[in-house]
Write a sequence for this structure.
C-alpha cells in the first residue's frame, strides 16, 4: 500500500505536464471552449473525470479520512469539502472572480501539508492551538473549488447553457469524488487490518507532507518564472 502510494505521488510530482493542479487535457479543453448550448452528459463526464484524475483533491481527501473509521464521520467531512468546493466553483464562474492559478494552486498544496501535519499531531503536540478540523475542511474545500473555477474561466465558457452545464459539471465532480472515495476507503480498510498500518501510518503522512511541500514549491516557482508580469 505504502509503495503504491509512493509511486503514484512521485509520478504526479515528477511530470511537469501533470503537475499543474486542476489540469485539463487538450481535447477536453477544446471541447469546453467550443461547445454551445446545454450539454448535460458531456459535462457530467468532464466533472467526474476531473475529480478521479485530480491528484491534489485525492491527496487532501486521503489525508482527511486517514484516521476516520466511522462512515458517519467520513460522510460529514466529505460533505463539508464537497459543499465548499461546489460553492466557489459555481460562484467563481458565474461572477467571473479570477484568482492567479499559481497562487490558488499553492494554497491547495498547502491544504495537503496542513492535513498531513494534523494527522502527525503537530498542532496538538507542538503548538498552543488546534485548528477545528471541520472548519478547515470546509475552508480548503472553498479553495479547491476556486482553483477549478479559475481554470474554467480561462476557457471562456459560452453563456448559452452555462448554468446547466456548470451544474452538470459540479454533479460530475461529486460523482467522481464518490467513486474515488470508494476506492480509497476500500484500500484503507484492507490496510488498516494489516499490522503494517500502525508501522507505516506516520511514514505515509510524512510522505503526504512531502507531496504537499512539493506542490507548493512547484506552484511558487511557476508564479515567479511562468506567470505573466
Amino acid at each position: 500500500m505504502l509503495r503504491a502510494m509512493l509511486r503514484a505521488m512521485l509520478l504526479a510530482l515528477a511530470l511537469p505536464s501533470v503537475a499543474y493542479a486542476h489540469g485539463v487535457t487538450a481535447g477536453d479543453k477544446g471541447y469546453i471552449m467550443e461547445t454551445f448550448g446545454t450539454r448535460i452528459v458531456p459535462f457530467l463526464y468532464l466533472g467526474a473525470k476531473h475529480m478521479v484524475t485530480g491528484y491534489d483533491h485525492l491527496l487532501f481527501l486521503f489525508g482527511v479520512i486517514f484516521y476516520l473509521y466511522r462512515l458517519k464521520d467520513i460522510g460529514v467531512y466529505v460533505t463539508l469539502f464537497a459543499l465548499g468546493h461546489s460553492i466557489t466553483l459555481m460562484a467563481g464562474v458565474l461572477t467571473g472572480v479570477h484568482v492567479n492559478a499559481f497562487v490558488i494552486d499553492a494554497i491547495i498544496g498547502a491544504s495537503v501539508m496542513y492535513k498531513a501535519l494534523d494527522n502527525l499531531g503537530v498542532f496538538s503536540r507542538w503548538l498552543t492551538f488546534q485548528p477545528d478540523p471541520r472548519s478547515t475542511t470546509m475552508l480548503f474545500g472553498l479553495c479547491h473549488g476556486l482553483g477549478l473555477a479559475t481554470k474554467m474561466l480561462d476557457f471562456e465558457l459560452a453563456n448559452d447553457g452555462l448554468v446547466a452545464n456548470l451544474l452538470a459539471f459540479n454533479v460530475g465532480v461529486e460523482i467522481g469524488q464518490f467513486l474515488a472515495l470508494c476506492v480509497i476507503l476500500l484500500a484503507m480498510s484492507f490496510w488498516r487490518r494489516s499490522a503494517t498500518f500502525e508501522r507505516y501510518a506516520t511514514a505515509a503522512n510524512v510522505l503526504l507532507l512531502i507531496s504537499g511541500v512539493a506542490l507548493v514549491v512547484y506552484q511558487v516557482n511557476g508564479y515567479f518564472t511562468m506567470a505573466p508580469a
